[in-house]
Every structure is written in structure tokens, then in C-alpha cells.
Amino acid sequence: MTSHAHSTSIRPYVIVWAILICMTILTAAVSFFELGTTVWHLIIALVIATFKASLVILFFMHAASSSRLTWIVIVCAVFFLGILFLLTLTDYMSRDMIPLMPGH
Amino acid sequence: MTPEPSILSPEERQVFQEDTVLGQHRLQEQFSNLEQQTETALVGMWVFLATEVLFFGTLFISLAVYRWQYNAAFTTASEQLDWMIGGINTVILLTSSLTMVLGVHFARLGWRRPLVWMLVLTALLGCGFMCFKGIEYYKDYVENLIPGWRFVDSEWLERGPGTQEAHGATLTEQDVPHVKMFLFLYWTMTGLHAFHVFIGIVVIAGLAVLAHRGHYSRIYYTPIEVVGLYWHFVDLVWIFLFPMLYLIGLHSASEIRF
Amino acid sequence: MSIATMPAQQPVSPAEETRLTYLNVAYGLKSWLLTKDHKRIGILYLLTITVMFFIGGIAISIVRLNLMTPDGRFIEPDTYNKMFTAHGLIMVFFFLVPSIPATLGNFCLPMMLGAKDLAFPRINLLSWYLFITGCGLMIYSVLAGGVDTGWTLYTPYSSQSSHYNVETTLIGIVAAGFSSIFTGLNFVVTTHKMRAPGLTWWRLPIFVWSTYATSFIFLLAVPVLAMAVILVVIERIVHIGVFDPAYGGDPLLFQHLFWFYSHPAVYIMILPGMGVVSEIIPCFARKQLFGYHFVALSSIAIACFSFIVWAHHMFVAGISLYSALIFSVLSFLVAVPSAIKVFNWTATLYKGSITFEAPMLFALGFVVLFTVGGLTGLFLATLGMDIHLHDTYFIIAHFHFIMVGGAVMAYMGGLHYWWPKITGRMYNDWLSKISALIIFIGFFLTFTPQFVMGYNGATRRYHRYAPEYQVWHVLSTAGASVLGVGYVLPLGYLIWSLRYGQKAGPNPWGATGLEWQTPSPPPPDNFPVTPLVVRGPYEYHLEKSQLDP
What we know:
The structure holds three protein chains of three kinds.
Chain A lengths: L10 H20 L7 H23 L7 H27 L10
Helix pairs in contact in A: 1-2
Chain B lengths: L9 H12 L12 H36 L1 H10 L2 H27 L2 H31 L2 E2 L3 E2 L1 H4 L5 H4 L10 H37 L9 H25 L12
Antiparallel strand pairs in B: 1-2
Chain C lengths: L13 H4 L11 H5 L4 H29 L10 H36 L8 H23 L13 H5 L4 H28 L12 H33 L12 H35 L6 H14 L15 H29 L8 H24 L1 H7 L3 H31 L5 H27 L14 H31 L39 H8 L2
């Protein structure tokens, strides 16, 4: 962590910040437009939010220059959150589906 | 990298040199060297943040499940929230993340005064977030968006999801309890988040005071890095909270007013 | 790593009498209540969970007495509900979950890693204070009228209808939960960052692998439970909530969140036991652990798979059929790594030089009872069978075989294995072996009838039952009395050994492992010199060649 050379420039951070602000304006702007079905709003919002989060994690939290262990921690947290979402939503989303069983 | 001489007083310079040379007085006895201690502290914070991901994640999955089931009610309710203040708060938090990482940057360089300024700015921006949140909460109170306290059922029967308002579709009586569900989640999630922001502000203000007193050097600035990670996490939660709560539905330019 | 086989009977030199240990380095209540020493914190946990174990045991004794007769009139129905709820909550959250990790894990993990302490000693102490806060709240709520929701706390009963001390109990559970989270954090970080030089991952004892896997589950599963439980508390207070059907809430959402933690929780309760058994069996068979890499990786696999099977507790609750099918298939998967471990323990025993000290008796009992319990889990993972077996005594028998026949036996085995290290004393050999046998017999008698009953349809959580089940209930209660004796006996001879037991040397069992390289009891900073590790774990075969001329 303290071993690599440090430039004194704050420019990389300011650039990342500027992109984050633009993305924020973008995500708010998208909510002004009708996009067919509402699911598109959700998808675009999630994509933008994930992109912003990645920037914060990689550059503000220095994950890009962190150890493999840090990467594993991040991946595990996100993965198991994903499991919580995936398997819970699977239940809710499939409750209306008529099972493919004889007689149905 | 020597610090600019005008930044440090003679006493500070002596402490700084002590730290630069040894750093040993910071070393806790279970560690063999300062680098191990620093890496351990950082890993510890990352692991703690992983638990927080699941902690907040539980609320997000609840939101997701009910948004899936009650889309019309949730969309309509979301459109009543003040997305402008939400947006301003997003910008504030993102900027506070910038000032925080700059603080870590200056700490790494050993520049005490810029470090202190960044910590102070971060704390102030955090306070700004809380102020706007207070204004927003007050507005919600005035606009009857607090189920169980200030809420008028009949108001909602005249509202509908923005995408359908053009077609005249409004909520029915069955939707009103679901509106309350959305608002319950809104208050719980933003409230829990605000609590985390508050803790962050207090800790960062404390760090600013300690940094001002020369407590940190470029050899030892671990608490600043560790708290920085926490603060960025608080920002991360808001990055998802903002669109998932405020931007579910449709907004129009006519809502932009001060 | 030298393997010293010092016999227990050694004359105690004067130097040994005054040697500095973690026990005599400081005296007084403050030195214990403000300690940062992981060994002292382990003992604080040991004392706390022992108390909780007996409170939970009293609760179930009352239940079993009530079940002697079909009309169940020993206590009121409401009281019956409160008793089995108290038993479940206390045993799960305040005994089993912390038992091996917080007592034996706290004590042994840093020593097994060759470290002076955990990564964050003050957070370790905080963990204990959070834990006893939880215990205090739980005991308070029991004394102040109890809770009758069942340990599973299902909504809407817990969030709306029950007018007992649900809030206090739930806050206690949150406190205990955060205690676990911080313990898990400490263990994971310590294992990554504080291993002695030369101690690579593939040289770690399985106990470390198991504790690591357990901590992984602590970190990712407990926060979900904590939040779910907090949401129930909020709902009780403000009368609006995410589980309330009046607002479109789904009680099943609580079950999803609850079991997202509670299924991995059962692996929290068994993984450390598996770790303990993996230490004991090689030692008392004087043989290297068979398939070390498989056993290590299967611990991680169990931890990961445990997260994807939770809704097999909800097959008849109202989840979709598709979802149920997915969870059923995944539940079969999770049996595989456990089976791998059983094969490896058995293969370790094969052609070993086996001796039957108390730790080994407990470990062997574990292998038998865990296997039976695990196999019956496959019955329950089968969707069609579970429809009939859910909420019957079959389920109760299944999880008690694993929790009591497995986890508690492993805890007792570990306690008896590391007792000399912790206290510097040996306990009475015969009494310990007799205790192990009494526990095994008592256990079998208590829970095997429950398999029979459950298969024949006896419903759980009922204070009264159809007369045809009485013979099984009576057998079960008789077994429980024997089991009780088996648990009280160790209390006697272990405490007796503290004063009168033979003094133990550093390595009375001739075991491998860094913790056996320091004196018993260990000095405050564990190792006078940081050890350098050059060999793998369980190298008992090398010892044999060292003994040969």
C-alpha cells in the first residue's frame, strides 16, 4: 500500500469525480423520458449506478491498486448479495407460473 | 518526499521526524511491523464493509420484491419524493468522497495542512447532506408522506404513475397500503443511511482535530485511510439509494423549482 | 516443527511453579473484564455459554416432562410454547453458534497460527460484551414472561399478534449477532494476516480452515438476520412494516431473510465441530489426516453452498413450485462436501493406532451421529418427502442428531482435548470416558424415538399428542434424563481438575500443532519466540519413524 510511487497530482481524482457528476445528471435526466416499459428505467438506472459504484470502488477506495485479498472480499460481498437477490426474486417471480405438470 | 517547511512548526517537525524514522510507537504488540498493522486494518475495514453490504442489501431486496409486486403504487409514491434535493445530496456526497480521497492523498504525501482542510471539508459536506435531508424530511412531513403519522389516503386516489397519468390512470384503494409500504421503506432506508452519515461526520471531525495536532504522518495515517473507506461506502449506498427510491417513476421539467 | 511426546506425569520444577502464564499474569476482576488477551476472552465465553447451556437445558427438561403424558397438562399450553421457544433461541444463538468458535476458536486460533493474539483484541473484547448483553436480554425476556413465537420467529405472529417480550428478545439476538460478526471479522483477518513465517495455507490445521469457513458465514449471513429482526422490532413499534399483509407485506419475505441466515447458521454450528474432529482423530489414531486438501477445501465448499439452499425450510410455506425444485436440487449438492469429510475421517482411522481417550470417544460419536443426522437431511431435501415430514418430529430428530450428536459432542471433545492446554491440568480419565458413553447412550435414547414418531406423523411444537406416540415420548424423556447426567458429570470432574488434577505438560496427547509447542497454560504472549514452520500439519507418520531406532 505504501510502496508504490505517489505523484502529487490530484487530477485523476478530479476526473473521476467529474465523471460521477455527469453520470448523476444522466441518471436523473433519464427519468424525464418515457421508455416503453418501466423495466428499461430500472435497467438503465442499475447500469449507471453500478458504473458509478465501480468508479468509487476502483479509484476512490483504491481497489484497483489493492491486494488480491481486497478483491476477493469485494467479489464475495457482491456475489452473495447477488445470491440473496437472485434466489429470493426467483420465488416471487415464478409464483404465477403454472407448473408444467400433468393435469395443468 | 519532504514536506514544505512552512507547513510544520518546529515541534510538529520533530514529531514528524520521529514518525518518519521509527513509527514504532504506533505499533500494537500483536503485530511484527507497521506495514502488517496497516494492511490488517485496511483488510479489516473492507471485511466490515462487506457485512454492511449484506446489511443494507436486506433492505434493497425488500424494496425489490415489493417494487416487483406493486409497481404502480411504488412508481406513484416515488414520484412524490423530492428528487431535486435527492440529486443535490448525491452531488454533495460524491464531492465529499472526492475531498475524502484527497485527504488520504495528502496524508500519504505527509502534507498536514491540506489533509486537515480536506477532512474539514468532508465533514462540512456531510453536514450539508444532513441539512438538505432535514429540509427534505420537513417537506415530506408537510406533504403528508409519513404513513402512520401524516398521511391522507384520499390524496393518493388522484395520483397515478407518471407514465400512465397521460392516460388518466390513477391509483385505486387497494394501492394505497402499498404506497405506505414504499414510504416505510423510504424512511427506513434513508434513515439508516443518514445514521451512517452522522457517524461518519463525527469520526471525520475527530480525525480532523487529531490531524491538526500532528497525530498523523506519511508513515502512519492508517485511521484516515480506514475511515476513508467507510465514507466511500456511505457514498456507495447513496449511489444506489438515489435512483432506486427517487427515480423509479417519471419526472418532468416542471418540477424544477426552488 | 518438533513433536514432543512428553508424558503427563512429570515432576514439577520450582521454575514451573512460578512461570508466568496468562492466568497468573494479573489477578482481579478488572484484569479479566478489561482483558485484551484472546485466551482470557475465550474463558469468559466458556463460562457464559456454559450458563446459557444449562438454562436452555432446563427449558427443554420442562418440555420433556410435559410430553410424558398425551394430554400435556404439566404446564399451560402458552408456557409450553415459551419453553420450547426459549430452548431453541438460547441453544442456537447463545450456545451453539458461539460455542466452538468463541471459546475454543478464540483460545486456539492465534496459537495455531503462531501469533501473539488476534488482529483486533479490543474488538474481540467488544464481541464478548455484545454477547453477554444479548444473553442478559434473553434471560430478562424469559423471566419477564417469555416469548412464544418459536425460535424461528415467524411473522406475522412475532411482528403483530404475540403480546409477549418479543422486542427484548429480538434486540438480544441482534446484539449476539453483531458479536458474531465482529468475531468472524477478527478470525478472517487474523488468518490472512498473522500467520507465522512458513505457515502457508496448505500447512494450516483443519481447525483453522473450519474456523475460517465459519467466520465467512458469520460475516455474510448474520447481517441479513440482524436487519430482518430489526425490521420486526420496528414493525412491532410503529405498526407498519414490510411483513405486514395489511400493507401488501409478505410473511414469506421474513422467512426468506430469516433462513438466508439460519441455514448457513446450521453450518456455523457444525463446521467448527468438523474442525475439532479433524484435529482429534489424527492425533488419537496416530495417523496423518487422509485427504487433507479435500477436507480443507470441503470446509470452504460447505460454507459457500450453505448460502444457496435456504428455502428448503420453506417448501410448504407457499413459495413457488419452481423455486422449491431449485432449492431441492441445490440441497442435495450441499451434502457432498460433508460426505467427503466423513470418508476422509474414516480413511484416517483405517490402519491407525487408535486409542480411546475421552476426546476420541467424543469424536467417534460425532462421526456416527453426524452421519446419521446428515443422511436424514437427504430425506428432507427431497421435496416430495418433505411435504410429509415437515413440522414433524423427524425434523427435530434430524437437527438434534447434527446439533447435539454432532456439534455438542464435538464441543465436548474439543473441550476435553484442549483442557490441558487451557488449564494446565489433566482431568480424571475414567470419568471422562464414562461421561462420553453416557452422553452417547442418552443421546441415542432421546432422539431415535423421535425419528420413528416423526415418520409416523407426530407433529412438532404441540403440547399434547395422540396416545399412540406416548411410548416414544416416554423413551425420549428417559433418554433426556440420561443425557442430562452425561452433561453434568463433566461439570464436576473438570472443575475438580482445576485444583486437584495432575499438572499437564506442553503436549500430553503428543499432538502436532503449534499450540502444543508452548507450555500449558500458555504464557501471555503465547510464544517466547515466533515459531518458524517447516512442516505440514498432522505429520504423525514422521513421529513414528522418529521413535524407531
